[in-house]
Amino acid sequence: MEILTTAASVPRFPLFHKISKTSHQLSLSSRPHLLRCSRDNGQSNKNGLSSAPVQTELESPNDVDVHQSHLKSIDKEKEGKHNDIWGLFKEAQQNILFLNKQRLLAMEELERVKNERDSLLDRVEQLEVKKQPNVRRDKLSISSELLLRIDSLVLNGVIGSAEASDLRRLVVDSRGSLSDDLYDNVFKNDAELLAELRHFSKKSKKNGFHIIHICTEMSPVASVGCLASYITGLSCALQRKGNLVEVILPKYACLNLDEVQGLQEVEAEFYSYFNGQLHGNRIWTGVVYGIAVTFIQPIYYSSLFSQDRVYGYSNDFERFTYFSRASLDYLVKSGKRPDVLHIHNWQTSIVGPLFWDVFVNQGFEGTRLLLTCEGFDSQCLEQPEKLALCGLDPSRLLRPDRLQDSNKPHLVNILKGGVVYSNKVIVMSSAQSKGRIINELGHGLELTLAIHKDKLVIAPHGFDKSTWDPSCDNFLPQSYSAHDMTGKSVCKLSLQRHLDLPEGASEIIVGCIYSDTLNVDLEKLKTLVWMASRRKVQFIFMVGSIQSPGTTRPLELFKEEVKDENVRFIDEYDEVLSHLIISGSDIMLCPSFDDPLLQVPLKAIKYGTAPVPVHLTESRFRHFGDDNIDNTKFSQYINSTFADMPLGQAIDEIKNNPSEWNRRIIDGMGKDFSWDSECADVHVEAYTAVKQL
What we know:
Elements: H1 2-8, H2 21-29, E1 35-38, E2 55-58, H3 64-155, H4 161-173, H5 175-181, H6 190-199, E3 210-214, H7 226-240, E4 244-250, E5 261-274, E6 277-288, E7 291-298, H8 316-334, E8 340-344, H9 351-359, E9 368-373, E10 381-382, H10 394-397, E11 412-413, H11 414-421, E12 424-428, H12 434-440, H13 446-451, E13 456-459, H14 486-498, E14 509-514, H15 522-533, E15 538-543, H16 552-561, E16 567-570, H17 575-584, E17 587-590, H18 600-606, E18 610-613, H19 633-641, H20 647-656, H21 658-669, H22 675-691
Parallel strand pairs: 3-4, 3-8, 4-7, 8-9, 9-12, 12-13, 14-15, 14-17, 15-16, 17-18
Antiparallel strand pairs: 1-2, 5-6, 6-7, 10-11
């Protein structure tokens, strides 16, 4: 049995190890005999084993070949199986390599998805940060809506004017927290809202002024000139500083009501005195950019504001006098008692004598009056007897120290009345000094301005920095900032392609955006274009308003005479394209640094574009040093940088001294000349001063 076991025990090799047939055969042939077991063909026992005795014999050498052949067949069978296993192994290896490759690709894809997700989350976070001003504006809108609801409660007789005044003060003094707590309550009915307001009876510390503008324009609902953007820009800036601002406007037929949120008519009417009688008015309320706006619509004199324009009618005095008186009557009826009543230009200057001669004792003892003048060239001279239309006494006002005009003493000067009867007068000018305004720009009011010079304050215009900021300007192909100016070159190339100008970052582009060309010396401008175009300077002109009669032809001749491959004209103002022109230009050629309508010089500085004067030798650019203490920060800055720089010198500086030029440009981009900066600060100081009187 030991020999049988040895013979039957075929050596085991490791898996995939190739067996050596030669050595196997040698091991067998070295044996002289094999033990062979024979079995009888008799019956097997019940266990399946043969019952016959086992017979053993030694085989002869001749039988070895037979056995070796048999073993060879076994070896071949095993080798075939081994080859099959080896093939399966190679296939498995290839599958494993393929799976590993797929796993690596999957890991790379997961990493890419993760990076995209992180980038998306960063973008969402950036958008949320940019959205914060809008969130704040929504909260301000809530406060404005609350005030309008309080007005409705008074007009409908639900509460008295005394309680209404307390509730308004509660809203004004509790700004942020109250807006959060009462957000859902704005949509409740009057009884529920009043209960909630009374619940918040504990007043917080006052942190701002309540200002009401009585004016004739507001962007974008009634936008004609620079007053509209001033009202909206300043009001938003003041509210961001913690003040509460409201606006009262006439309900013109030409109002852009699509821009008014929640416009609704208040059910109750109020009456206003005019032409010897009381006349009914309808009240409409809404919110514009977070500012509560009240629209006054006459019932009997409905035709006063039914025209398709804001200004330019023979009865403008009657129209705006009615509106001014109605605004004061509305304040009395609604119980509003603002800290400051802010009036504008001659159109609402009649509020001044009305306020102090008729209304001050009707609960306005704590209210003060402030007048803003965009300029003194429009003053409104009228017959004295017309003052009686709104309840004023002409005999008391036709005096040199009141409304009597200095040059035409038989007439009353409405703008002069605003100056005399206001506690402060703010003159809007970015570039002129107080002394020059009094002495040279009074248009006949020089004596009055000199007498009241202590009232006068100069404030610069501003721009909306949420719209005009190169670091987040959606109208630009690529944003940029003072820290990374790469995007400005992209904007220049995009501008050149858009207007089909020869491309190249080395080209100097001069932009010219004018609200009109009435104050532009076209001959001077033509000379500048010819001189600079020979130096391969590119010019882009955009004229943004309807030309007055008689000015279209000179402009057309100018366009024909300066026709050149490096000159382009855009015949109408395009807001989107103006962003690209200001960002893509190196220089903005300005007819004046005082640009109240478009604020091009202010925006140019923010976008890294140098504002350079057209008329360097004219007096308008030579008065920044006068009364420097009264100059605005903008005029002080522009005087030290670009005011005395002609176009040719600016071109030389860009080409020959780029490092110094870039330093100056980047320094300017860091300045803030928006509504939120100096303009708002000057107004807050003025409000503070008049409240202390």
